[in-house]
Amino acid sequence: MERGINKESFARWSEFRPRCAAMPVGSVPHREVGPALDIVLETAPEVPTWPQLPRRSFLENMYVQFSEGLPGLQVDVATEKMVEHSELPDAELLTFAEALETNDPTFFAVSPDYAAGLHALPSLLERLKGPVSFLKGQITGPVSFCLQVTDQDRRPILYDDTTRELATELLTARARWQQEFLQAMAPGAAVLIMVDEPFLAQWGSGYLSMPEDVVASLLDRMAGVLDCLVGIHICGGTDWSKVAKLPLDVLNFDAADHLDAIVAHAEAVATFVAEGGMLAWGAVPNDERVLTLEPKQVADSVVEGAGVLASTGLVSREDVLLQSFVAPACGTGALSIPIAEACLRLNAATSQALRSEVMY
Predict the structure, then answer these.
(1) Could you list the residue range(s) of the whole structural domain that residue 179 is in?
(2) What angle do CA 325, 221, 75 make, to 5 degrees?
(3) Could you give the number of structural domains in the chain?
(4) Residue 128 belongs to domain with CATH number
């Protein structure tokens, strides 16, 4: 696949410009699906997103949620641990290989026990007024998954060629299944799959060994199987000049506490936007600050950031805002329910402020 903006998928969905629409990240602290769907519907009706519920079950932990079927993996819900065994069972390998060969949708589906919000999403769509423009899903990225999951010696499976390959095949097939599952719910919508890669916040920092060719290859493969918009979410600072070269349509970054990382790589990000890419500004902090911040304050920070990108001369501020979403800085699953809901409501109000005060 060509490096840089995923031109084929963006060309297909180019009529859908977000115009600072409010977009949730994914995880919420609710234990029940109903209230989680309610807050998504209230605060992000333009970008309906299935909620991840990590407090409902360990199976909804972002690393466990998409792991079902990985040969050799043992998940212990009681102790909340997952371990990949170095000796892979032949029977599991055979089943996995057959599922890959036949593209078995039942094998690569995400089970309701692992993603209750995903399977309840049709009930949210039924309550929406009018057609859906965007429909968002998410999946844990292969780099972070393979750094988080370890073998019996606590060595990340990223550094084992065989297991890394199995995990990447699993996640890419599961991403494809999710895209098709979502598209069937809203055939006219632009499906957006966000790839969660928290470990890439340390890309280039020296704290973790993440060879650039390995990272690029894994993410190229995931984006390459999808016939929809593909984005990446990194809640932290990273080398955005590297990320902007990946075949992606949306960059979702922490603009509340790590905007400096975008400023440091303004030319690369501005080029990404100029080529048709979209941004998701994680400008709403996911902590108690949301109780005192006003929507205009958050909106002003987005406008200021868009101005920095425009100052490169590569893209206008107006185009940056037209091609932007606004979002919480990160998932809200670790917050209290009141703080999480305040975060999502502030995000919705920020979207309205941007549209009423800046855009026309």
Answers:
(1) 7-53+118-148+175-357
(2) 90
(3) 1
(4) 3.20.20.210
Residue 1, C-beta contacts closer than 8 angstroms, at least 6 positions apart: 220, 223, 224, 247
How far, CA to CA in Å, does 40 sit from each of 117, 289, 290?
Answer: 11, 20, 17
Q: What are the tokens at 175?
A: 């991403």
Q: With H, G, I as helix, E, B as strand and everything else as coil, classify residue 318.
A: helix
| Residue 23 maps to a domain | yes
Whether 84 is covered by a domain: the verdict is no
- Region 130-157 average pLDDT: 93
Bridge partner residues of 215 (DSSP): none
Please name the helix (run of DSSP H) or strand (run of DSSP E) that holds residue 95, with its range, or none: helix 90-102
329 burial via Cβ count (<10 Å: 0-12, 13-18, 19+): buried
Cite the beta strand spans of the chain per DSSP E.
Answer: 21-22, 73-76, 81-84, 134-140, 190-196, 229-234, 250-254, 278-284, 324-328
Task: Answer yes or no: is 186 within a domain.
Answer: yes
The pLDDT confidence band at residue 143, using thresholds 50, 70 and 90, is very high
To the question of pTM greater than 0.90 for the whole model, the response is yes
Confidence class for position 3, pLDDT limits 50, 70, 90: very low
- Please give the torsion angle defined by the CA atoms of residues 101, 105, 111 and 115, in that order, rounded to the nearest 10 degrees: 100
Please indicate, yes or no, if residue 316 is contained in any of the structural domains: yes
